[in-house]
Amino acid sequence: MRNEPQTASQMIDLSSMRVEHAVDKVIEHAVGLGASDLMLLANEDFFAIHVRHLGMIRPVSIVSADMGKRFAQHIKAAAGMDVAENRHPHDGRWIYDSLADEGEAEDEESGADRGVDLRISTVPTMHGEDMVIRLLSRRHGLFKIDQIGLSKKDLGRTQAMLDSPGGLVLCCGPTGSGKTATLYAALNYLNDGLRKINTIEDPIEFAIEGLRQSQVRPKIGVDFAQLLKGVLRQSPDIIMIGEIRDRETATTAVHAANSGHLVLSTIHAPVAAAAIESMRSLGVNNHFLATALRGVLSQRLVRTLDPERRVEYDITHAPQIFEPIRHLLAEGEGKTFYAPGATDGHTGYSGRTGVFEVMTMTNALREMVAHGADTHRLREQTRKEGTLDFKSNALLKVARGITSVEEVFRVVPSEYLED
Are residues 119 and 196 in the same domain? Predict the structure, then answer.
């Protein structure tokens, strides 16, 4: 991404505003757009302001170097951060009262807070201090498990995993692939008031009634591993660990799953079967992992086409395109596909949804994991057992007009779309 000034028609002019008004303007713009992140990026002679919307970086404004510094200082002050220190990375939090929420009645049933939770991160760069703000709008409800993009078959498999009395369920994918949203959807499904659910998060993104939520605090030595040991003494039925990232957390999570707890967590791996290798790399014993693991969800986020703007293309002359998933399509599906109708500055996309691989453990897979089978062999076995891989799930969404071919190839690595 090149941080260069854009045309005036694309930008917000902040030059004549007082800094506090400019900050409000930009935050309100990001909130109104539904952006996930707001970025203030230092350059030699100016600061570039961008948002991340539907996974894509969009320019918002260009301000002078002096105004950019004052912009950052105002936000740091509001978040209780040290405004004088810009040589080290820092984190902060600001609960912002968005004007976009004025006039909206509070949801009495859910008691939802209508503010916006801003998670602020700064890091020193060559030309100054960069700031990235994660926007967590409290007025948006949690997804249900059937709203995250799972196919009917994969939804059934996922619910069967979550209905297990114990075991380990992993969600994997790169940063920004929606793993946390999937975990929250799973917790929403499980939160029936009959079981004690403890979570260990970094950070706590949504406060959920009925859950016992704990946040890691690395600055005082309270990490995932330490909190997990404490939570296990709290008589939980279900434990959600925001991320497995070290040997101690991985081995403790597997032992907890083998002891009768249902453990949910995320781990970095490109496909479902590769999560096995990721756990092994953290020192988890193959036999313990084979008995503990219930399944893995691997995912990516793709933008969804705006149904009012999408452009239809007839492909009845090329029916082979959807042949691999023909048995999964309803009558009339698979005869067309759609592209984004981008007009008047609109991208042609209106939201995002998940593309998944869902691997459920079978006796054959457990035997292979216990004996150290690699990712390639595990993936071949999952296909034999009917797992819908990324290619099949992506084709389903294209055939149903949910997303475009271009978007699938933008997000899902090509090696996972080939036979």
Answer: no
SS3 content of the chain, % helix, strand, coil (to 5): 35, 25, 40
DSSP 118-148: EEEEEEEETTEEEEEEEEEETTSPPPPGGGS
- 3 lies in a domain? no
CA dihedral 390→393→399→404, nearest 10 degrees, is -50
Same structural domain, 166 and 93: no
CATH of the domain at 149: 3.40.50.300
pTM of this structure = 0.84
Query: Which run of H or E residues covers position 314?
Result: strand 311-314
Residues 295, 162 share a domain: yes
CB 292 within 8 A of CB 167: yes
Residues 60 and 163 in one domain: no
> Which of 88, 111, 137 is where one domain is finished?
137
The Cβ of residue 378 has, within 10 Å, a number of other Cβ atoms equal to 21
Is the CB of residue 163 less than 8 Å from the CB of residue 367?
no
C-alpha to C-alpha distances, 64 to 3, 72, 74, 85, 406, nearest whole angstrom: 13, 12, 15, 20, 36
Domains: count for the chain? 2
| Residues of the chain scoring pLDDT < 70 | 1-10, 99-114, 138-141, 345, 418-419
CA distances from 249 to 181, 211, 223, 244, 253 (A): 21, 21, 9, 6, 6
Full residue range of the structural domain in which residue 374 is found:
145-416
What per-residue confidence (pLDDT) applies to 341?
Answer: 85
Tell me what pLDDT residue 107 has. 42
Burial label for 337, CB within 10 Å (0-12, 13-18, 19+), is: buried
CA–CA dist 166, 155 (Å, integer): 19
- Could you tell me if residue 226 is inside a domain? yes
Is residue 299 in a domain?
Answer: yes
Instruction: Tell me the two tokens of residue 176.
Output: 């920004």
3-state secondary structure of 255: helix
Q: What is the DSSP letter of 165?
A: S
Q: Which residues neighbour 101 within 8 Å (Cβ) at sequence distance 6 or greater?
A: 114, 115, 116, 139
Residues 213 and 95 in one domain: no
pLDDT digits (tens, 9 = 90+) for 225-270: 999 999 999 999 999 999 999 999 999 999 999 999 999 999 999 9
Question: Average pLDDT of the chain?
Answer: 88
